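## tool: complex_structure
## caller: assistant
## args:
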Amino acid sequence: MAGPHGDLAGGLSGDLVYAAGALNLRLSLRIPPGATHVLLGESGAGKTTALRLLAGLLRPSEGRLELDGAFYDDTTTGLHRPPEERSIGIVFQQGRLFPHLSALDNVAFPLRAAGRSAAPARERAAEWLRRFQIEELASRMPADLSGGESQRVALARALVREPALLLLDEPMAALDVRTRQAVRAELAALLGDRRQVTVLVTHDYLDAAVFADQVQVLERGSVVQEGTVQELVERPRSAYVAQLAGMNVLRGAARMVEGGACEVEVGAVRLRAAREAEGPVFVAIAPAHVTLHRLQPEGSARNVIEGVVTQAVPMAGRVRVTLAAAGGLVLVAEVTRQSSMELDLEQGTAVFASFKATEIEVYR
Amino acid sequence: MKPLRAVLARFVVGIAFGIALAFLLLPLLALVLHTTPGDLVAGLRSPVVLDAIRLSLITTLGTLLLTLAFGLPAAWVLARWRVPGRGLIEAALALPMVLPPVVAGVALLVTVGARGTMGPALHAIGLRLPFTTLAVVLAQTFVAAPFFITSARAGFQALDPGWEEAARALGASRGYAFWRVVVPLTAPALVAGLGLTWARALGEFGATITFAGNLMGVTQTMPLAVFVTAESDLRSAITLAVLLLVLAFTVLAALRSAPLPARA
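## result:
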């Protein structure tokens, strides 16, 4: 289906560099129409700067940006289209509904800004409120809206001009935990059947898991990993992603051994993995695959690390135990509540952690 | 011991407060008590009084328009642009607020007066400012505009730039974002600044009489008329004085008690 913004071959394509002060942001984006791209990173990673670049609020130091066949930025020719000349909609972290305008007038704002007269703009805005089933909020002022209601109005406002690019800046961050779940599901449903390109920036792994077709992980301005959420979780390439995904990730040097296996030296510890690998590698171990013992376990197929419990956090039906081992190595294990009680785990308990060679993921 | 000393301290502070209040308010009260409603109505029939009121309303309105036209951009630049030597500029802009108004009048005379720096140039294009109504507006603007600029600048500075960015990212041009988002969100500061400027312009005396002169119907605003009639026609003087008092009080009271719109 050909939409109002060109053919199916459109989408977003951009290579952007932005350098200012300590931040040196480098982005390379290829997003097909209808896809949702998530930029995941901690605060200060450059996520918001990335959004401001895409919105045209910032001028890139270098690079180009193309959306559905139209160029928005090209530093080689000096082209920079200001925000009002871009087909974009945006939802901000705290909604940023204009406090002096009713919900309806907030939704009508982008149309009015584009020069539409009041009556048709409001009519169109009312249509969007109906579509989101929040028409009863039309006359309310933003101060009288709940967090969830605000974000729904903000999304209607962002989509009212049917932009080719929808930008979402931590849209869940200001909501309380319970509302967040409901709004996230709702947003996902509302975004599901649309054909615009969506770029979502967030530090919340769940946002990525729910929305993303493709994820880029940003750290200090650079993309450190790119892929689907599944790929990220299975093979994290940074401590940040590993922590988000709840995985143990260690860095080491691999050496091939007989039988299609390898030994990985991680600090003072030597791990055995049932994979072929050579040179510097990442080693990922799921916490659920780590078992704990009070006495040194037997059996050569298992890797064993000796450590001390630094934290034991009870969760639903299990306990998440953090260990400190020699050489600053930190390992997380998840054990059943029963075995935690049997082992009498508490802070300072000396234990042995073990995991099978077949349960280690080794990758470069 | 302690309670007695505390009571004594409260007593002393209370007395001081009473004296301050009496000193500041008694003359104003005397002014109002010195007149009767009949006197006021009679005073309002005097041509001097009527001319002065008309002129004051016209010139202060002109001052407000002039202040808005140039003060709004000035306040915006000071709040949002990177201006070298901003501190010095702001101090200089505030100078007319603390300068003796007569000095302001002399300053205007030597700048745009007939023999001032720019006098010949203005004369060449047929503009003679001194002793005209326009000169009154200039004198009032010179001493009163800084009140608006200071207040508006503070308002702009306090506004999160995220609001402009939000408007821009939703498709608003810079101008649309300014008029439809920035101005409504800073309205309390802008209105307060305008109120102060208007009150100051209404009471302007020294700069006006020095620079614009004292011609009935042309440059004789209410304060000037009070000064002139105080010798010869006390009833007119008191009528105008009471009127000025009531107007100024109304503006100040309105600015204090106005329910400011909520700012998110």
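## assistant note: Chain B has a mean pLDDT of 87. Chain B has 13 helices and no strands. Handing back to user.
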